[in-house]
Amino acid sequence: MSEKKVRWGFLSTAWIGMKNWQSVALSGNGVIVAVASRERAKAQAWIDECSAHVPFAEKPEAVEGYDALLARDDIDAVYIPLPTGVRTEWAIKAAQAGKHVVCEKPCGVDVAEVEEILAACDEAGVQFMDGVMFMHSARLDALRKTLTDGSIGELRRISSAFSFNGGEDFREGNIRMHSDLEPLGCLGDLGWYNIRFNLWVMDYAMPKAVSGRMLRGAARSDSPDKVPMEFSGELFFDNDVTASFYCSFLTANQQWAHVCGTEGTLLLDDFVVPFYGSEACFTVSNTESNQHVCDFNMERHDRVVSVREYGGSHPTAQETGLFRNFGEIVLNGTPDKTWGDIVLKTQQVTMACIESSKQDGARVEL
């Protein structure tokens, strides 16, 4: 591994940044130089808390204001977990300042914003990637092998659900309940992962049509409009493959994905964030139904496929892989546009689902 390291700046002190503070520290090819907030004292308190848990050799500097961080010449890349409503502005500013960008999802409020971000990154010659951590899990390689080795036959159906119960405090105070800050609600925050998984299984072939329904909407008292609180979608691909997903801020923690073929199925109980432990797994099932006169028996034939990968807080964890893989691209000096293409496709499907939901679930062609 190269001794040279990517010098990171964090734009905001969002709580998810604490996880990624450790991810950079464990990546082996990155170091955090500065963290910016609107108030320097807030950035300093956040740095102090993270440093007490995972220290860097040189303590990152607290910076007041995002522009001040982007103006620094000792920053190579920035991590942007700002609200979606303002994310595009700062992603573009970062690119124009010559900084590589990792951006939380959804990356924009619509397709046009993502196209603007990608154009700015392309013009500046910088790398862009969204913060979907499961894309960097070693489990995906094992999953792809199983999808293509005949274990489940021909692909027919994909189903998934990702939800958590935010509770009353969440509904009244969280930024994800404000339409100016997070207009896509649970679809942007959670459904992005469902849609991305569907696209990944399909090798990024786009659906020919989608149908989406906002099952329930809600908003903070200061929000101009409601945001999706509970959403379901259906994607229609070529070759008779269909995919359904459910996402919600109302139901208990769940993050399962099920892939069904003509001969068997795959099940991931934790496709977004692997459960705590030293292995990431999925189950392959090839169920058989047998009859002998009056005896009808359903036989279970399961096998578990696992990879040695910790669920978090470890050099092998998928979030560490994200920052390590991004760092390698930056250090190699040649941006990989594939990551931006994947982001754009995810945004396009997301917005088509929103368009359909406004038409009571009518099919929207892509």
Layout of SSEs?
Elements: E1 6-11, H1 16-27, E2 30-37, H2 40-53, E3 61-64, H3 66-70, E4 77-80, H4 84-96, E5 100-103, H5 111-124, E6 128-130, H6 139-148, E7 155-163, H7 167-173, H8 185-201, E8 209-218, E9 227-236, E10 242-248, E11 254-261, E12 265-268, E13 279-285, E14 288-292, E15 295-299, E16 302-308, H9 318-332, H10 338-357, E17 364-365
Parallel strand pairs: 1-2, 1-4, 2-3, 4-5, 5-6, 7-10
Antiparallel strand pairs: 7-11, 8-9, 8-17, 9-10, 11-12, 12-13, 13-16, 14-15
What would you say this structure looks like, in words?
The structure is a single chain. The protein is of the alpha/beta class. The protein has two domains: 6-134, Rossmann fold (3-Layer(aba) Sandwich); 138-316 and 346-365, Dihydrodipicolinate Reductase, domain 2 (2-Layer Sandwich). The chain has ten helices and 17 strands. The strands form three sheets. Strands 16-13-12-11-7-10-9-8-17 form a nine-stranded mixed sheet. Strands 3-2-1-4-5-6 form a six-stranded parallel sheet, sandwiched between helices. Helix 8 (185-201) crosses helix 10. The chain is globular. The model has no long low-confidence stretch (mean pLDDT 97).
